[in-house]
Amino acid sequence: MMTLWASAAILAAAPAAQGDLDRLAATLGYRYTILTNRPASCPTGTPRCFEADIAIAVPEGAPSLPVEIRYSLVNPVLKIDSDTFDNRTINGDLNVLTLKPGQQLKPGQTYHVKLTGLGAFFSRNHMMPNAMLAAEGLTPRVIAATRTGTDAETGLETLPFVAPMTDEAALARSAPDDQTVWRTPERAFALYAERGRRRRSMSRFCPGLRRSRARPVRRSIWPRDCASPPRVSLAPPSRPRWPDCRWERCR
To answer: Rounded to an integer, what is the distance from CA 108 to the centroid of its chain?
Structure first.
């Protein structure tokens, strides 16, 4: 008789537990931030690594469930630093954050997982969306905060849960001899302005350059004033050392 009562209680609790998991997945906060591509040190035997932070915000009134968070990362995870979670790599890019013994997610709290990965993380677009919340005996649910979005102006896919990368000193380079700089709007403007200045300077040596641009588009694949069609070469074309009006018209 007790067995029948216990079975009935389990069946009645299962839908409620699934509903709690669904609500938690719909409201849980999840934020991924790339901290640095040049940490002070990397795990032994690792030439390059990066550090990132996963912030998990539990909303007020959230149910207490023994959940795990399943997420994907392109780079192998070397280690994590957290008082609440342990990390386990399942296969390839799939990882699982599990609660340490005696730990639980408390409503209104934000938990941080400091992650160290192999290599470097140069783009927000490398992060994979659709992290999942799972509990034993229940159907896993996608954490709503990790779903992709759509940019209203371009229609391109976005990753709202990945923080912007703004610290160039920490994120643009991963090695002391790396000279990479970001193409910021200001730098792009200066670069294109310099190219325009050089083009105007070229027109002084080639009086016919501006007039040649005003001609109607010809139907042939090369201008008629070229002596012969351009030759196909696998090597990139090189500019003449000195201004060459004909080259400018026929390139």
So the answer is: 28
The pLDDT mean for the chain works out to 82
Nearest in space to 202 (alpha carbons), one of 239, 238, 229: 239
Contacts 24+ apart (CB under 8 A), 124-129: 124/34, 124/159, 124/162, 124/163, 124/164, 124/165, 125/159, 126/74, 126/75, 127/32, 127/73, 127/74, 127/159, 127/161, 127/162, 128/71, 128/72, 128/73, 128/74, 128/93, 129/159, 129/161
Residues in CB range of 73: below 8 A, 6 or more apart: 93, 95, 115, 117, 127, 128
**Residue 180 confidence class, pLDDT cut points 50, 70, 90:** confident
Residue 140, CB-side half-sphere exposure with 13 Å CA sphere: 13
Average pLDDT over residues 186-200: 88
- The model's pTM: 0.71
User: Considering only CA atoms, which of 243, 242, 212, 238 is closest in space to residue 225?
Assistant: 212
Q: Is the pLDDT of residue 233 over 70?
A: no
CA 82 vs CA 10, 21, 56, 99, 112: distances in Å: 33, 23, 12, 10, 7
Residue scoring higher pLDDT (1 or 74): 74
Which H/E stretch holds residue 214? helix 208-214
Sheet of 77-81, strand order = 29-36, 49-57, 110-118, 77-81
Structure tokens, 125? 């677009």
Q: Give the dihedral sign, CA 39/43/48/52.
A: negative
